[in-house]
C-alpha cells in the first residue's frame, strides 16, 4: 500500500513572497529594526540567496540583530501579528487547495524551510501542518541569538534534517513528493521521488527541464 509523504519549501513555494522578507519589512514598519539600510541589506542578501551564493551565518547575524535583547515570548507575539497582517494573504490558492486535499486524505505533510524556525513553525501551524523544520537558533538569556543550533535547513542541510526525521518515524513512507521554487533545493529535489517546481527560478527551471520534473505555475 502506498504511503506518500509531501514535503514543501515555504517561501515563494506555498506563498507568493518570501515570508522572511515580509517579516523583516514588519520589523521596520513596527520600529523594531532601526538600522537605516536594513531593507536594502536584506534585498542584497536575498539576491545572493536567489543565486545560490548566500552565506547563512552572515544572513542570520544581520537579520536576528534587532531581536537579540527581546524576550522570545515577545518575538512570538510579533510573529503572530505579522502572519495576520502580511503573510496569510499571500498564500497561493493552489497551495491552499492541495494542502486541504492532502489533509482530507490523511497524508502527512511537512514544511522544511531555510527561514528561522520560530517563523516557520508559527506559519505551518496556521496552515494545519504539524511538522515544520526551519533553522533553529541558540538562546541566550531567553532571547534569540544568530548562532545555529543543530542542522541548518539550507541546501544539503534540508536533506540531512529530513533524513534525521525519517529515521525517527515508526512509519516508513513509500514515496516522497517535494515542492520548491529554488535552486538551493536541488539536493532535496534529487533526494525526493517526485519533485514539483513552483514558479521555479531560471536555474531550477533549466535543471527541471533536463530532469523531467513537473513545473507548476501558481498565482494569487
Structural account:
The chain is α/β, with parallel strands linked by helices. The protein has a single domain, classed as 3-Layer(aba) Sandwich (Rossmann fold), CATH 3.40.50. Helix content is 45%, strand content 20%. It has nine helices and eight strands. The chain has helices spanning 19-29, 38-50, 56-64, 72-87, 93-104, 117-126, 156-167, 186-191, 202-211, and strands at 4-8, 108-116, 131-135, 137-140, 143-148, 175-180, 194-198, 214-216. The strands form two sheets. The protein has a six-stranded parallel β-sheet with strand order 3-2-1-6-7-8, sandwiched between helices. β7, α9 (202-211) and β8 form a beta-alpha-beta unit. α4 crosses α6 (117-126).
Amino acid at each position: 500500500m502506498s504511503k506518500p509523504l509531501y514535503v514543501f519549501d515555504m517561501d515563494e513555494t506555498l506563498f507568493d513572497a518570501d515570508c522572511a522578507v515580509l517579516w523583516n519589512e514588519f520589523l521596520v514598519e513596527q520600529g523594531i529594526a532601526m538600522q537605516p539600510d536594513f531593507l536594502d541589506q536584506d534585498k542584497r542578501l536575498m539576491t545572493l540567496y536567489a543565486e545560490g551564493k548566500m552565506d547563512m551565518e552572515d544572513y542570520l547575524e544581520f537579520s536576528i540583530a534587532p531581536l537579540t535583547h527581546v524576550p522570545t515570548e515577545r518575538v512570538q507575539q510579533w510573529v503572530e501579528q505579522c502572519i495576520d497582517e502580511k503573510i496569510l494573504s499571500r498564500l497561493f490558492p493552489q497551495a491552499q487547495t492541495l494542502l486541504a486535499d492532502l489533509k482530507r486524505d490523511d497524508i502527512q505533510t511537512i514544511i522544511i524551510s531555510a527561514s528561522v524556525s520560530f517563523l516557520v513553525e508559527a506559519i505551518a501551524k496556521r496552515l494545519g501542518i504539524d511538522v515544520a523544520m526551519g533553522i533553529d537558533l541558540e538562546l541566550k538569556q531567553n532571547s534569540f541569538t544568530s548562532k545555529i543550533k543543530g542542522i541548518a535547513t539550507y541546501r544539503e542541510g534540508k536533506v540531512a534534517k529530513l533524513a534525521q526525521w525519517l529515521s525517527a518515524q515508526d512509519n516508513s513512507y513509500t514515496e516522497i513528493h517535494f515542492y520548491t521554487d529554488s535552486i538551493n533545493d536541488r539536493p532535496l529535489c534529487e533526494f525526493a521521488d517526485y519533485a514539483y517546481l513552483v514558479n521555479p527560478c531560471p536555474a531550477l527551471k533549466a535543471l527541471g527541464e533536463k530532469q523531467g520534473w513537473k513545473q507548476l505555475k501558481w498565482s494569487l
